[in-house]
Amino acid sequence: xxxxxxxxxxxxxxxxxxxxxxxxxxxxxxxxxxxxxxxxxxxxxxxxxxxxxxxxxxxxxxxxxxxxxxxxxxxxxxxxxxxxxxxxxxxxxxxxxxxxxxxxxxxxxxxxxxxxxxxxxxxxxxxxxxxxxxxxxxxxxxxxxxxxxxxxxxxxxxxxxxxxxxxxxxxxxxxxxxxxxxxxxxxxxxxxxxxxxxxxxxxxxxxxxxxxxxxxxxxxxxxxxxxxxxxxxxxxxxxxxxxxxxxxxxxxxxxxxxxxxxxxxxxxxxxxxxxxxxxxxxxxxxxxxxxxxxxxxxxxxxxxxxxxxx
Length: 310
Description:
Elements: H1 3-53, E1 65-71, H2 77-91, E2 96-105, H3 110-126, E3 129-138, H4 140-145, E4 151-153, E5 158-160, E6 164-165, H5 172-178, H6 202-228, H7 232-237, E7 243-245, E8 258-259, H8 262-273, E9 278-280, E10 305-306
Parallel strand pairs: 1-2, 1-9, 2-3, 3-4, 3-5, 4-8
Antiparallel strand pairs: 5-7, 6-10
Helix pairs in contact: 2-3
C-alpha cells in the first residue's frame, strides 16, 4: 500500500467514525428529550390528578345540567361541609337548573343535620330542589330530607327514627380482668358526666337527659314540624324513634308526600327542564390523607347522635 493510499484510507475511517459518533450523539439527545417529555407529561398528569382529588379542578360539562347529590354516608359535619361547599360552587352557575338530592343516610350528628337542613331550604330559593329518599332516610338523614317539599321516596325506603341516642358501654368487668382503671383529674362535679368503664348512675342519666338528650330531641321535633308544615303534636305521634316504610298509608302527607322510583323522578325533572338535561355529580372526590386521621383531644364526652338504625 502506497503512502497516498494509506492516508486516504485513514481519512475515510476517520470520517466513518465521525459519522457514527454524530449518529450516537443525535440518538442519545433524542432519547434524553423523549425521556424528559415523558417525565414532564407524567408530572403534569400527577399534578392534575391531585388537583382534581382536592376539588381544585372540575371537569366542564357543556349544556344544561341538574346537580345530583347522593348523600350516602352517616351524617357528620365534615361530610356535610363537603356537600355544602360543592353546592356553593354551582349556586351561581346558570347551567345548573336544579338540584336532585338523593338521601341514603341512617343519621348521625344533630348539628350537621341542622346545618344542611337549613342550607337546603335556602338553596331551594335560588334553584329548584328535589328530595328523594332512596333506601334510608332515618334520624339525621330524615332531619335533612324533611327540609324539602314535596318529599319523594322509594316505596320500600326506611324513614323516620325521630329520636336521640347517647351510646355508652359498661366495661367495668372487662377492665378489672385486664387490669385497667380510670384515673382522671377533673374540676367541677359535672366535668366528667360519663365513665368509659362504669355504669351510669341514675343521677348521671337524669343529668344527661335533661342537659343533652331532651333539648336535642325537642329541636329535632320542632325542625321536622316546621319543615313539613305539620303540627308538632302530630309529629310527636310519629316520633319516639319509630321507623316506617315510606309507603305505609298512615305517614302519607306527614313524613312522606309522594312514592315513586328515582328514574321516574328524573323523567319528571326532564319534562320540566328539557329532555337534553344531564344529571351531574358536583361532588369532588374525597381528598387523600397523607398522614392519616388528625389527632383529636378527647374530653370524654361524645355528642349525642340522632337515633339511627346502625
